[in-house]
Amino acid sequence: MLNMAEGLARLEELAAHPVVATVARAFAEAGRDLAIVGGPVRDALLGRTTHDFDFTTDARPDEILALIKPVSSVQWDVGREFGTIGARVKGEQVEITTYRADSYDGVTRKPTVEFGDTLEADLTRRDFTVNAMALRVPARTLVDPTGGVEDLIAGRLRTPIDPAVSFGDDPLRMLRAARFSSQLDFTVDRETLDAIADLRASLQIVSPERVQAELVRLLQTDDPVRGIRVLVETGLIEEFLPEVPALRLEVDEHHHHKDVYEHSLTVLRQAIELEKARHPDAAPDVPLRLAALLHDIGKPATRRLEPGGGVTFHHHDVKGARLARKRLQALRFDAATTTVVTRLVELHLRFFGYAEGAWTDAAVRRYVRDAGAELERLHILTRADVTTRNKRKAQRLASAYDDIEGRISALREQEEIDSIRPELDGNRIQEVLGLKPGREVGEAYRFLLDLRLDEGVVGEDEAEKRLREWWAARG
């Protein structure tokens, strides 16, 4: 809840910051208006830490550059055509933008850049009222023409103008509504939600890379589930990630199974909790969070209603991995992220066989080998995938996973499991069997690797003997 007195005191602190004071003095001496705008003002009022120094001014780009040069160590003007000049002041990065009064053609989200003359007009063209506040400096006057303070107090997201017009100008703002809902723990107001539902198809003019970037920012928040619910409720997610709403499987009166959509959201939340508990200082793990959200997307395509009321989802892990790869590629995720998420989705069921009966050391080795570099993520995902309300079952699964992690640690100490290799390399295999490089050498290598996984270290002589026996048996 916003405490206005405390919020205003934090605005005073923001205005007194050495970077802000330095820039404000330079512009005031030149007779130019200057204001801190958007996120820094919002976050100061909410008591959140901010490292952004975003300013807006009535000065045009050339004059901004001239004014900022004497008080900065470096400047850049890559955003000059949009009115933005960047600089480094007292070791901090700042951006200063001329008042804008852009117009849009509705065909692309690229505006026709037009510079404005007033701060108030500039603020009304921004995405949400809570981001449409400014603090004039050095005067320290709060400017809030669209009711941003009231919306902060109410915990509400609302556009400064008619949402149909705002989202029509820039459809990416619809995705930002979901992201800010999670980031600020705010509710999106009904008129805004309705506009998103009505205009969701306009997201198609936004590039996949931009959509992906907003999805990543949403997943990096502490509770992305709130934003995902906004996306599903409005139907916007159908435009770029339809596999998620497809998890809301219909349940008839004769066949019963858990709600896969709600289960997936719970897994996402639990994965984030475990991620923070195990790696408290690490950055948000987006590949893990994507895998948690998508781990069951193969279920709709593999659901089978069985006689007697049972429901099966055979091989939904394999199907889900294929679907995840295709979707992430369409959203232009990099190859590394796509590979990690796909592998986790494919492996997420592997552990549950362990819980049903003790694995041999060989099975544990294979589990580690197949997970590879993603073993820690797989630990988290598998633990998070337990959402049963049956406390006894949940405790049994947790104990089983404690056991397998303990065995993995023991095997690592004994055999350096992360670097398991056959006792004979490819060159030695060729010498022993009189082969040239080719497919048969690879098959022999895999035979020896399985031998190592099944029996551990047997020694080079025994490995060579077994290799010759295997080769002879092949004829």
From TrEMBL:
PROSITE patterns: HD. Its EC number is 2.7.7.19. Gene3D superfamilies: Beta Polymerase, domain 2, cca-adding enzyme, domain 2. Its cofactor is Mg(2+). SMART domains: HDc. Residues 260-370 form the HD domain. InterPro entries: HD/PDEase_dom, HD_domain, HDIG_dom, NT_sf, PolA_pol_head_dom, PolyA_RNA-bd, tRNA_adenylyltransferase, tRNA_CCA-adding_enzyme. Keywords: ATP-binding, Magnesium, Metal-binding, Nucleotide-binding, Nucleotidyltransferase, RNA repair, RNA-binding, Transferase, tRNA processing. Pfam families: HD (PF01966), PolyA_pol (PF01743), PolyA_pol_RNAbd (PF12627). GO terms for biological process: RNA repair; tRNA processing. Transmembrane segments: none annotated. GO terms for molecular function: ATP binding; metal ion binding; poly(A) RNA polymerase activity; RNA binding. PANTHER family: MULTIFUNCTIONAL CCA PROTEIN (PTHR47545:SF1). This is Poly(A) polymerase. The lineage of its organism: Bacteria, Bacillati, Actinomycetota, Actinomycetes, Micrococcales.
